[in-house]
Design brief:
The protein contains 18 helices and no strands. The protein has one domain: MFS general substrate transporter like domains (Growth Hormone, Chain: A), CATH 1.20.1250.20. It is mostly helical. It starts with a helix and ends in a 13-residue tail after the last helix. Helix 10 runs antiparallel to helix 12. Helices cover 76% and strands 0% of the residues.
């Protein structure tokens, strides 16, 4: 009781330490968001057709098609999503420290394997399979650990901060990867980053801990409104109970809608900039800039959306983000054709903000609907929507190989996002017998 009373007065400093450690782990796991830098160096062109050997620092590698270069990225994302389920169970049972460490080591091993094999198969096995496993285990450990230290009124902010690390990773990984590729080749970039990630994650994971037994997170300074209280579940649902509700499948579709649009842009950021501003020497030589800029907006969108979703509600925040982003996706073919770099950065920034915001909204949605106790395992199932969303960037690669354009993919993506926004307007949390229904 003493612990509960004391902790209700103020969030302890250790809670923010756990949040910071989660951000640090995710800053390594977020290598996925810089994939377009490697893709730009892997995809063949007229002078170097797919299947032809590379030379110099990249001797031993061969050029790939657009679809092949997207496959490792897509495989990584899909396996990441699948591994969130066992990853959630691992962190629930053995603690976040163990789950994060295991994830970091898998990711490091995958990067190193990809560098050593120097092949399409190596990218699939190393970056795709091992990297995806590592991301799933590590990501599943960071958010639940931090959320348990804070009350529902800060849930959006805290989730945004932790997952913001994943989004922000591209800010430093994109230019670092560009420099490593130039100095040491594709293999050197993968191996060097693998070693770095292992060191950082192992150290940061030491600070990931659950609150002590009996801890009660502090409440807001003023009592929440009746409408706000109605949006929160007063019960902790098990995964089996959650899977029997239609709201669970609604959340999965919301995840698919928001994630696929961002993943499409992330996978093609550097090539899109090269196409839009190829005539400008600076941008032609620094295609990584759009990926790095996107990482900054991605991370900011997670924190920003988390903050205003605590004020206006998750559904309203989702609709605002989705509507603006869908408009930008529909306009993207015209923007690319116009060659306007400022408009491209604006449209891509909106897409990254929406995508990052959704990754703050979805765990908060899950905790609001099904309670925080089993968040690690429950969110792993909801996160399957993120993995399913990779079918859009993969389909986009096939469409681009066939037509030479991403236009159809942008229209498809915008349509899916509009459908998800419409669902968000009617989605309400489930209620058990005897529990007040959501407003």
């Amino acid at each position: 009781m003493a612990m509960a009373t004391a902790s209700a007065a103020k969030v302890p400093a250790r809670a923010w330490g756990v949040t910071t450690a989660g951000m640090a782990v995710n800053l390594c796991l977020g290598i996925l968001y810089a994939w377009s830098v490697w893709k730009a160096n892997l995809v063949g062109d007229a002078a170097h057709p797919p299947g032809s050997p590379m030379s110099g620092l990249d001797a031993g590698w061969t050029y790939l098609t657009d679809a092949q270069a997207t496959s490792a990225y897509a495989a990584c994302g899909m396996i990441f999503a699948l591994m969130m389920i066992p990853g959630g169970r691992i962190q629930d049972r053995y603690g976040p420290r163990f789950g994060a460490t295991l994830g970091g080591l898998f990711l490091a091993a995958g990067c190193i394997l990809a560098g050593l094999m120097k092949s399409y198969l190596g990218l699939l096995l190393g970056f795709g399979v091992l990297g995806g496993i590592g991301m799933g285990f590590g990501y599943a450990a960071t958010t639940p650990a931090a959320v348990k230290w804070f009350g529902p009124h800060r849930r959006g902010l805290v989730v945004g901060l932790v997952v913001g690390g994943y989004g922000a990773a591209a800010i430093y990984i994109a230019p670092l990867a560009k420099a490593l590729i130039a100095a040491y080749g594709l293999s050197g970039s993968f191996i060097g980053l693998g070693v770095l990630f292992a060191l950082v994650v192992v150290v940061a994971s030491r600070f990931l801990v659950f609150p002590p037994e009996g801890y009660a997170p502090p409440g807001p300074a003023s009592a929440p409104s009746a409408a706000a209280s109605a949006r929160l579940s007063t019960a902790d649902w098990t995964a089996s109970e959650m899977l029997r509700t239609w709201q669970f499948y609604g959340l999965v579709f919301l995840f698919v809608g928001s994630a696929q649009s961002g993943l499409l842009v992330i996978a093609n950021a550097a090539p899109i900039l090269n196409k839009t501003a190829g005539a400008i020497a600076f941008f032609a030589a620094n295609g990584w800039l759009l990926a790095s800029y996107g990482g900054l907006v991605n991370a900011t969108g997670r924190v920003g959306t988390g903050v205003y979703s605590d004020r206006i509600g998750r559904s309203n925040a989702y609709v605002v983000n989705a509507a603006i982003s869908a408009a930008c996706l529909f306009l993207m073919p015209r923007i690319v054709a116009s060659g306007s770099v400022p408009l491209l950065f604006l449209a891509v920034g909106v897409a990254y903000w929406q995508y990052g915001g959704a990754l703050a909204l979805m765990p908060a949605f899950t905790a609001d609907f099904f309670g925080p106790k089993n968040l690690g395992f429950n969110y792993g199932f909801v996160f399957l929507g993120w993995g399913i969303a990779f079918f859009v960037p993969q389909a986009a690669g096939v469409l681009k190989d066939a037509t030479g354009s991403l236009d159809a993919a942008f229209y498809l993506s915008g349509g899916l996002l509009v459908a998800a926004a419409a669902l968000s307007l009617v989605l309400r949390r489930p209620s058990r017998r005897g529990e007040a229904a959501a407003a």
